[in-house]
Structures are given as C-alpha cells and as structure tokens.
Amino acid sequence: MHNDVILEIAQLRKTYESGHRALDGLSLSVRKGTIFGFLGLNGAGKTTTIRILAGLNSKDSGTVKLFGKEIDEHDYDHKQQVGFVLDDPLYFEWMSAGEYLRFVGTMYDLSLPDIEHRTTDLLEFFDLTAKGDDPIETYSTGMKKKISLAAAIIHKPQLIVLDEPLEGIDALAASSIKESLKIMAAGGTTIFITSHVLDTVEKLCDEVAIIHQGKVLLQCMTSEIRSQAKGVLGNETYASLEELFVDLVSDRVKKKHLSWL
Fold first, then answer.
1. What strands lie across the sheet with 215-221, from one edge to the other?
2. Which residue of 42, 49, 206, 214 lies most exposed, with the fewest beta carbons within 10 A?
3. pTM, whole model, 2 decimals?
4. Are 61 and 231 in contact (CB under 8 A)?
5. Count of CB atoms situated within 10 Å of the CB of 176
6. Contact present, 26 and 214 (Cβ < 8 Å)
C-alpha cells in the first residue's frame, strides 16, 4: 500500500442470508486528504460497504485496510480515527445538540475541557448555537444532518465516512455542509462520501469510484473522468458526470417499458 493511501479495499464480498449478493469482489483505494465520491444506483452495494467499514456488517471475504492495518467487524481501535454518518443516524432526540455532542465526546474519552471547547466550536461552526439548547427532536432534517456531522468529527478523526449526507435537505443546508467538508479536507481530513446528487459530487469530490452490482466499474480523479470513461465506453465526450454515469450503468440494467405509455 502506498504511504498516502488511507483506505484500501480488496476483493470484498458479501452475500446476505436472503441470497442477495451485495458485494462481488469490490476493490478501491482512497488517498489521504481527498474528498472521495462513492457512486452507484440504489442496491449497488454502497451502504453495505460503509456498514462493513463501521463494523456493523461482517464480510464474507476480502480485505479492508485502514491506515495500513487490516480490520474486521470485531476491531474497534480504528474507530478512534474514523467518523461515521450512516444512512439512518440514531440520536437521543430528547437531548439538546449541546448535550448530545458532550455525550459523544465522553464516549470518545475526551477530557472535559476538550469536550466543552469542541462542543462550543462545533455548534458555532455549523450555525447551531442559537438552537444548541433545544431538543434534537425539534430540529429540521438539515439541522439533524449537521448534528450528525458534528458528532462524527468531535474526536478529530483522520477519515470521515458519510452515507448520503445531503439526502432530503434544502439547498441552504446542503451548501453549508459542502462548505464544511471542503474546509475539513483543506485541513487534511479524508472524506469518503456517497451521494445520488451527481452534479454535487462532480463539483465537490477530488476522486470518484462508480460501483454497480457490488463491483467498481471505474475509479479515477474527477478531473479525468471523461477521458478515462472514453477508454471504457468509447464515447468521445460527456457533458456531465450524470451523463457518464447513466451511460456506464444503463446497459447493465434492463428496464421494462410501461406498455400503456
């Protein structure tokens, strides 16, 4: 593994008891300090991959290395260096934002002065100071996303893993979160993000991987994706990442047309 690779996944496989094969030899690598976009249709294997990274799902085979060390679902040491925002975050919604962040800081065994300092800073950073004493259950979806992200970074992780952090929120909240991610990446934090908003991914991410049916079809720098795709698909030009993505996966997905249209 190269010294600048912070996450390396090789030949990862996972089949659920239902028989659904979620991951079928998935391989990718993520370099330190990048914003990495992990793209795919619903059911492509994105959330399964993230749940394996978080230790919530077991893998059938393959390897996952974080910071050069191979991990599995029983290894929790790496979580001191990783922050997660999962697709369905859980909160103690009767808590206020400040109380919740202090609780999370305690779980990471931070000192009380650090907890207080970081809680105050995070509430201000995410424009939540005015609502910091209100119960989380009263927050909008966008505010809850911000709290999830604040809780994920209170322990200063080297890697942040985000599953659809922009899903279901308004443009202003999305803009605030994207700007926050850019600031963190500029400070050296690595960000691994899934999103269905392809235009956002193209503008935000340094590098992308497109996954389909549990395999990576294409991984490259965002700035090079059109030239890379030319070799894979034979198309000369693409106007957008969305156009490329549709072209890449459409011939692998057989859709039945509605007979009455």
1. 82-85, 159-163, 190-194, 35-39, 207-212, 215-221
2. 42
3. 0.85
4. no
5. 18
6. yes
